[in-house]
Specification:
Blueprint lengths: L1 H23 L1 H5 L3 H23 L6 H4 L1 H15 L10 H6 L6 H15 L6 E2 L2 E2 L1 H22 L8 H19 L7 H17 L7 H54 L6
Antiparallel strand pairs: 1-2
Helix pairs in contact: 1-3, 3-5, 3-7, 5-7, 8-9, 8-10, 9-10
Length: 272
């Protein structure tokens, strides 16, 4: 909601700047050749379309997929302005359009569009105007999961209680593929938002749970070690006690044998 308000604020700011432009610098606009005036109007329209597209596709985020044409049009119009110069007129159209007032509306609007596009990291997902291979891989897996979930929700033949079991493989395919490639700095906000929303719905909305086998194995190993420690402790104590018993037994036997030998040597008979 905050992002939407921010976008609307910028858009209203832009429209207000346009109206103030027409009233405060009408003299400069009047002397512009028709090509300059038409290009300024075209740039304003394309920027407004891009802003509307971003606001419309902010939740869930599908900015890169749905607004790429609007972004390219803004970029194209700005490039045309940068190349614009009418040698037959005393007015430099490019300088007037990019520095038409202290607000620098054209420049500020173009930077806003670029900043929004960069924040969405759309370059990471796109080849031209279409998704690249890895992004398509995520979207295809996401569509498969959505179809499975929709089948259980809309079809009375399928029980909602079996959703988790029947759709688990589709969910794992999506999350495993995303986790495999996410550290490669590959995905834009369209993909990140899709996966985050899917994981949130899977756990909170559908009450499904996917076991983390790695964590479970670690927990099992730790539990086994904790349970084994008392057994090892008593076993070691038993071994030590056995060794002590053997030592005492051997000492008693040795003492008894020594006593018997001493008695036999001292009991001799003297013959006179």
């Amino acid at each position: 909601m905050a992002k939407t308000v921010h976008f609307l604020y910028i858009y209203l700011f832009y429209l207000n700047a346009r109206s103030s432009l027409a009233s405060n610098v009408s003299v400069s606009i009047d002397v512009l050749p028709d090509g300059c005036q038409n290009l300024l109007q075209s740039f304003a329209n394309e920027t407004a379309r891009f802003t509307l597209c971003v606001v419309t596709n902010a939740r869930p985020i599908t900015v890169c997929e749905k607004c790429v044409n609007e972004f390219n049009q803004v970029f194209k119009r700005y490039e045309e302005i940068q190349k614009l110069h009418n040698n037959d007129s005393e007015v430099d159209c490019r300088a007037v359009l990019t520095n038409i007032d202290r607000l620098q509306v054209v420049y500020a609007s173009y930077n806003y569009v670029l900043d929004m596009w960069e924040k969405a990291s759309c370059k990471l997902c796109l080849n031209g105007t279409v998704f690249n291979e890895k992004t398509r891989g995520v979207m295809i897996r996401g569509d498969s999961l959505d179809k499975c979930i929709s089948k259980h929700i809309n079809n009375t033949e399928h029980s909602n209680t079996s959703l988790c079991a029947d759709c688990k493989q589709y969910y794992m395919n999506l999350t495993d593929y995303y986790n495999k490639h996410k550290n490669e700095n590959t995905f834009c906000m369209d993909v990140v938002d899709l996966v985050n929303n899917t994981q949130s719905d899977w756990s909170l909305k559908w009450k499904c749970h996917v076991s983390n086998y790695d964590s479970e194995w670690v927990l099992l190993v730790i539990s086994f070690i904790v349970l084994l420690l008392p057994i090892l402790f008593y076993f070691i104590n038993w071994l030590v006690s056995q060794e002590r018993s053997n030592i005492l037994l051997s000492q008693n036997r040795w003492h008894q044998r020594f006593t018997n030998n001493a008695a036999s040597t001292s009991g001799y008979v003297v013959i006179s």
